[in-house]
Amino acid sequence: MDEARAIAAITEFGYTPSGDGEYVKIKAGILREKWALADGGFLRFTREDGQWAAVPFSIAPEWEGIGGLDHKSKPQCYEWLYPFAYVANIYEVANAERAANAAG
């Protein structure tokens, strides 16, 4: 159920299916962001130097409070999976705000 809600919310927001469970956002004709289906949620990516770069969801609980962490050099310190319910909630709110703004 949360998976279907998340997919509906991101597609309403403007992400389009690109195959293999991936949904991409194109701005000004350029690929900008991507959500990729994974077991239990989504993996998020953004474009960096023409390549897809993973975006972490959060710092792993055992690493919270430790300074100097970088997701590129210490990927094991991060949670990478965005839960379906989280994605659904943030994009449902964003879609409602867009609709309210469009209505004036």
What would the keywords be for this entry?
single chain, 104 residues, alpha+beta, two-stranded antiparallel sheet, 2 helices, globular
Radius of gyration: 15 Å
Number of domains: 1
Largest sheet: 6 strands, antiparallel
Question: What is the element string, with H for helices and E for strands?
Answer: HEEEEEEEEH
Strand content: 35-45%
Number of E-type strands: 8
Helix tally equals 2
The chain-level structural class is alpha+beta
Mean model confidence by pLDDT: 93
Q: What low-confidence regions span 5 or more consecutive residues with pLDDT below 50?
A: none
Overall 3D form: globular
Q: What distance lies between the first and last C-alpha atoms, to the nearest angstrom?
A: 32 Å
Amount of helix: 25-40%
How is this fold's topology laid out?
Blueprint: H1 2-13, E1 16-19, E2 22-27, E3 30-38, E4 41-48, E5 51-55, E6 58-59, E7 78-79, E8 82-83, H2 84-103
Antiparallel strand pairs: 1-2, 2-3, 3-4, 4-5, 4-8, 6-7
Helix pairs in contact: 1-2
Structure description:
- The chain starts with a helix and ends with a helix.
- The model has no long low-confidence stretch (mean pLDDT 93).
- The protein is globular and about 45 Å long.
- It has one domain (2-96).
- A hairpin with a 2-residue loop joins strand 1 (16-19) and strand 2.
- It has two helices and eight strands.
- With 104 residues, it is of the alpha+beta class.
- The longest helix is centred in the C-terminal third of the chain and has 20 residues, at 84-103.
- The strands form two sheets. Strands 1, 2, 3, 4, 5 and 8 form a six-stranded antiparallel sheet that branches. It has a two-stranded antiparallel sheet with strand order 6-7.
- Helix 1 (2-13) packs parallel to helix 2.
- The chain has helices at 2-13, 84-103; strands at residues 16-19, 22-27, 30-38, 41-48, 51-55, 58-59, 78-79, 82-83.
